[in-house]
Amino acid sequence: MLLNHGDLQAIWLTVRLASIVTLILLLVGTPIAWWLARSKAWWKGPVGAVVALPLVLPPSVLGFYLLLAMGPNGPVGQITQTLGIGLLPFTFWGLVLASVFYSLPFMVQPLQNAFEAMGERPLEVAATLRASPLDAFFTVAVPLALPGFLTAAILTFAHTVGEFGVVLMIGGNIPGETRVASVQIYDHVEAMEYMQAHRLSAVMLVFSFLVLLALYAWRPSPKKGA
Amino acid sequence: MPSSRLLSLLLASLMGCCATLSYADEVSVAVAANFTGPMEKIAPAFEKATGHKALVAYGTVGKFYAQIKNGAPFEVLVSADDETPIRLEKDGLAEAPSRFTYAIGKLVLWSAKPGLVDDRGEVLKRGGFQRLAIANPKVAVYGAAAVEAMKKLGVDAALESRLVYGENITQTYQFAATGNADLGFVALSQIYKNGQYAPGSYWLVPPTLYPQIRQDAVLLWRGKANVAATAFLAYLKSDAAKQVISAYGYEF
């Protein structure tokens, strides 16, 4: 057997986490990217900077603040306790929330680029044909930005799979609940089970390569004209 | 002939200059996370007493083992157990005669909430909490000790679904200190300083409930020729160091 039960469980958990995070970010990230691409408001800069923060911040900083924020005395923790869902650290949904923050720029930035590259023209044309803004968005903007959506979704998924520092800080390493593949590998190394660490790492390596290969193979040639 | 003499002169002066720049009075020490508190006092005291400098890295012993096996430039390992130093000796990476037990660790059940943990550990049977943090028993001796204690008390099965695992004892403490876990099995050194316990409530787990946590230090092969490394191990045995170590609740 190449992988043991714990490894398979960790992989399944990782895939589930990455899929849910990608779906949520498609819903949350798209309007943010759209607004960032179109808005001329002065706070566009600050919002863009906040979105990009996880690119710069060490996962330990992010994880530490999330642990405090979601804890019993933190603002998020107060809200979740009031809502009766208890505390989020050490739960799957806590990981989902943390990963949404963590992977946000990987969704927003490619989408923003795609929307910006599209320019105003197609939407103006749609408007003259009396398409409502929403109609224009779904029938004109989304198809035009489809490669951007694909890139953003793949990057978000892959980045969430590769997450380590944040889940280590707030996950609590619970099998089947918060012990994702990256943490499982770390545990193997710590426990000096190098053979198992090798196997799971190799799976991750091959997976990452295939994802990136798909990304580069599918990505159409850069926008003509512009 | 003259040119080769010039060359050797150049080489000699180069080597002389390198020798003064070398790590002759620096020792690089890998220290188990549970010993962070005392080491932060011991390292500066060692520097003051000997003039050598200790470059200290804190972490889990499993990680240090992997790093040392793969060429990490540590010269002394201050371990959380006695197994890892022995393993390194078998690998030919540590100097067996240098190994000694510098402290015996104590396990404590602690909560940041006052009144949650009683002084008999009955809270483990009584319940009334959501999450119990322990260090990952697969990799941390304090975690393994906690599991053993819960088994002896017969509460391991009942509590299993409430456990959260810290990567090491520092993170376990962090889970409990931030209140995300209501209580946790931590090292006494983390909540005890100079006869004072940290705020909250605690139960000192009786040593009969878990295997003795013998924490060994050992000289690694890279530190063999380094006087600062030998001096560091000697200092760890000194009365001054022992005073600090026992002030954190460790025994000998």
TrEMBL record, chain A:
Domain ABC transmembrane type-1 as annotated: residue spans: 11-216
Highest taxon listed in the record's lineage: Bacteria
Alphabetic keyword roster: Cell inner membrane, Cell membrane, Membrane, Molybdenum, Transmembrane, Transmembrane helix, Transport
Keyword Secreted on entry: no
Keyword Cell inner membrane: yes
Membrane topology: Multi-pass membrane protein
Membrane-crossing segments per the record: 12-37, 49-70, 90-108, 136-158, 200-218
Signal peptide segment: none
Cellular localization per UniProt: Cell inner membrane; Cell membrane
A Pfam family of this chain: BPD_transp_1
Biological function: Part of the binding-protein-dependent transport system for molybdenum; probably responsible for the translocation of the substrate across the membrane.
Family named by the database record: Belongs to the binding-protein-dependent transport system permease family. CysTW subfamily.
Matching PANTHER family: MOLYBDENUM TRANSPORT SYSTEM PERMEASE, MOLYBDENUM TRANSPORT SYSTEM PERMEASE PROTEIN MODB
Full protein name: Molybdenum transport system permease
Species name: Rhodoferax lithotrophicus
Classification of source organism: Bacteria, Pseudomonadati, Pseudomonadota, Betaproteobacteria, Burkholderiales
UniProtKB/TrEMBL annotation, chain B:
Record InterPro entries: AvModA-like_subst-bd, ModA, ModA/WtpA
TM helices/strands, residue ranges: none
Pfam families: SBP_bac_11
Keywords: Metal-binding, Signal
Signal sequence residues: 1-24
Gene3D superfamilies noted in UniProt: Periplasmic binding protein-like II
CDD domains: PBP2_AvModA
Family the entry assigns: Belongs to the bacterial solute-binding protein ModA family.
NCBIfam families reported in the protein's UniProt record: modA (TIGR01256)
Stated name of the protein: Molybdate-binding protein ModA
